């Protein structure tokens, strides 16, 4: 059967419309995303132009921002692009414009209506990665001086333009935030009750705060929306729960990718071209290859010992694998605890101490299990060397895996970037040094 993208590329509008009747928005989004990943992506643009206006807007809003940027780059009709941009919320529009070259962003901003342009430009003025870029400036607010009935009327008037009305900021003079009240609270309270009597103490963040930090605040406090205020507590906007969950998902995806030694694709796999996938991996592989030369250097330094006791070489892969896995386990645990704010640099001593004890017990357990078979195959002397080495490298690996992420976080570096891959490379080399040094001392090499 001819694909929808092929029909659009051939200009078969009738075939496209017939096929569209069988699909929902989610399926069309998946098709457009996949077509954008193909060489050139021309079929994606042709398919998108074939969509009815309302459906096109719905599909565009459902695409990930990087894919929106790709699609905008392939559309040539400025009017069409303007309609799509005007239909986005200011925070979503700012996220899309981040994906485009500066010249394109400036041109598209100039085509927006004055109000939308002003709000979008204000968001883009905050640092990349900050909650200021992800907040919605369109907020329904109520003054602290009104009654509940007056507040409900105000929410009805302003609700259409606000991104959320389920949590309503209460403001005082100069738009300073004094509290928040839920829509449910307003609905179940008498109309003559003053709003100041039913509003709650607000949890808020500054616009320069990181979006991941703000997202964790939303999750930990069970909030529907989080007010964003300036240093004088003037309300600037709100960070909604759906944006917060998206930020956390993006952060977890980045940590997962970097923990596995690759850069995040930031788009669905099938919509990423082969060259993009290669670029996301090649840098890490080159870095790890350079790091692996340490292992080669260590082996070369102990060449004489290997020549005298060839059996030592049999256990090098086992020790390297054990050290790398133990370090990766510790690093993954600590990075996760850092992400959830369970650990900070001040906890370094306690964490390293716990992981050293954990490494000792893990190493002792592995040594007990492996001592008998090693004695049977290679003799008592080498079995003792292996047992002592396993205990030592497990302690080294878990201690390193605990310390490096905490130090990296304190230095302003993403802990996931320096966790598992680099820790594995480090403990591989140092583990071999411990192994051959132990063998040299106990075997008299």
UniProtKB/TrEMBL annotation:
<keyword id="KW-0129">CBS domain</keyword>
<feature type="domain" description="CBS">
    <location>
        <begin position="135"/>
        <end position="198"/>
    </location>
</feature>
<keyword id="KW-0813">Transport</keyword>
<dbReference type="InterPro" id="IPR036739">
    <property type="entry name" value="SLC41_membr_dom_sf"/>
</dbReference>
<dbReference type="Pfam" id="PF00571">
    <property type="entry name" value="CBS"/>
</dbReference>
<protein>
    <recommendedName>
        <fullName>Magnesium transporter MgtE</fullName>
    </recommendedName>
</protein>
<dbReference type="GO" id="GO:0005886">
    <property type="term" value="C:plasma membrane"/>
</dbReference>
<dbReference type="InterPro" id="IPR000644">
    <property type="entry name" value="CBS_dom"/>
</dbReference>
<keyword id="KW-0479">Metal-binding</keyword>
<keyword id="KW-0812">Transmembrane</keyword>
<dbReference type="InterPro" id="IPR006669">
    <property type="entry name" value="MgtE_transporter"/>
</dbReference>
<dbReference type="InterPro" id="IPR046342">
    <property type="entry name" value="CBS_dom_sf"/>
</dbReference>
<comment type="similarity">
    <text>Belongs to the SLC41A transporter family.</text>
</comment>
<dbReference type="GO" id="GO:0046872">
    <property type="term" value="F:metal ion binding"/>
</dbReference>
<keyword id="KW-0472">Membrane</keyword>
<feature type="transmembrane region" description="Helical">
    <location>
        <begin position="420"/>
        <end position="443"/>
    </location>
</feature>
<feature type="transmembrane region" description="Helical">
    <location>
        <begin position="282"/>
        <end position="299"/>
    </location>
</feature>
<keyword id="KW-0460">Magnesium</keyword>
<dbReference type="Pfam" id="PF01769">
    <property type="entry name" value="MgtE"/>
</dbReference>
<dbReference type="InterPro" id="IPR006668">
    <property type="entry name" value="Mg_transptr_MgtE_intracell_dom"/>
</dbReference>
<comment type="function">
    <text>Acts as a magnesium transporter.</text>
</comment>
<dbReference type="InterPro" id="IPR006667">
    <property type="entry name" value="SLC41_membr_dom"/>
</dbReference>
<keyword id="KW-1003">Cell membrane</keyword>
<comment type="subunit">
    <text>Homodimer.</text>
</comment>
<feature type="domain" description="CBS">
    <location>
        <begin position="201"/>
        <end position="256"/>
    </location>
</feature>
<feature type="transmembrane region" description="Helical">
    <location>
        <begin position="382"/>
        <end position="408"/>
    </location>
</feature>
<feature type="transmembrane region" description="Helical">
    <location>
        <begin position="356"/>
        <end position="376"/>
    </location>
</feature>
<dbReference type="GO" id="GO:0015095">
    <property type="term" value="F:magnesium ion transmembrane transporter activity"/>
</dbReference>
<dbReference type="InterPro" id="IPR038076">
    <property type="entry name" value="MgtE_N_sf"/>
</dbReference>
<feature type="transmembrane region" description="Helical">
    <location>
        <begin position="311"/>
        <end position="335"/>
    </location>
</feature>
<dbReference type="Pfam" id="PF03448">
    <property type="entry name" value="MgtE_N"/>
</dbReference>
<keyword id="KW-1133">Transmembrane helix</keyword>
């Amino acid at each position: 059967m001819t694909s929808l993208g092929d029909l659009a590329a051939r200009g078969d509008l009738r075939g496209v419309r017939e096929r569209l009747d069988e699909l929902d928005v989610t399926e069309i989004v998946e098709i457009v995303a996949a077509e954008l990943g193909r060489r050139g992506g021309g079929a994606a643009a042709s398919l998108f132009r074939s969509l009815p206006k309302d459906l096109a807007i719905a599909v565009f809003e459902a695409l990930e921002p990087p894919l929106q940027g790709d699609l905008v780059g392939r559309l040539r009709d400025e009017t069409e692009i303007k309609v799509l941009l005007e239909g986005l919320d200011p925070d979503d529009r700012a996220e899309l414009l981040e994906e485009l070259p500066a010249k394109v962003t400036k041109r598209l901003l100039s085509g927006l209506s004055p109000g939308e342009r002003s709000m979008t430009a204000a968001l883009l003025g905050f640092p990349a990665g900050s909650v200021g870029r992800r907040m919605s400036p369109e907020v329904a607010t109520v003054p602290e001086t009104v009654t509940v009935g007056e507040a409900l009327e105000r929410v009805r008037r302003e609700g259409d333009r606000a991104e959320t009305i389920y949590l309503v900021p209460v403001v005082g003079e100069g738009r300073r935030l004094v509290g928040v009240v839920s829509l449910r609270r307003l609905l179940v309270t008498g109309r003559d009750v003053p709003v100041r009597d039913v509003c709650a103490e607000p949890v808020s963040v500054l616009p320069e705060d990181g979006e991941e930090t703000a997202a964790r605040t939303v999750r930990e406090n069970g909030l529907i929306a989080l007010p964003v205020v300036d240093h004088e507590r003037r309300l600037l906007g709100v960070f909604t729960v759906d944006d917060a969950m998206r930020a956390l998902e993006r952060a977890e995806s980045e940590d997962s990718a970097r923990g596995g030694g690759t850069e995040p694709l930031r788009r669905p796999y099938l919509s990423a071209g082969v060259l993009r996938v290669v670029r996301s991996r090649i840098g890490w592989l080159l870095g790890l290859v350079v790091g692996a030369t340490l292992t080669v250097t260590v082996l070369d330094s102990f060449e004489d010992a290997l020549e005298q006791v060839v059996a030592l070489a049999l256990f090098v892969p086992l020790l390297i694998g054990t050290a790398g896995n133990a370090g990766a386990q510790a690093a993954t645990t600590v990075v996760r605890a850092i992400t959830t704010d369970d650990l900070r640099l001040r906890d370094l001593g306690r964490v390293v101490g716990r992981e050293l004890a954990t490494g000792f017990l893990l190493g002792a357990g592995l040594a007990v299990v492996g001592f008998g078979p090693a004695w049977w195959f290679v003799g008592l002397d080498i079995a003792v060397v292996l047992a002592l080495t396993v205990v030592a490298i497990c302690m080294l690996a878990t201690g390193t895996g605990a310390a490096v992420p905490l130090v990296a976080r304190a230095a302003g570096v993403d802990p996931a970037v320096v966790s598992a891959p680099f820790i594995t490379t480090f403990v591989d080399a140092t583990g071999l040094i411990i192994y051959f040094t132990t063998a040299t001392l106990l075997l008299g090499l």
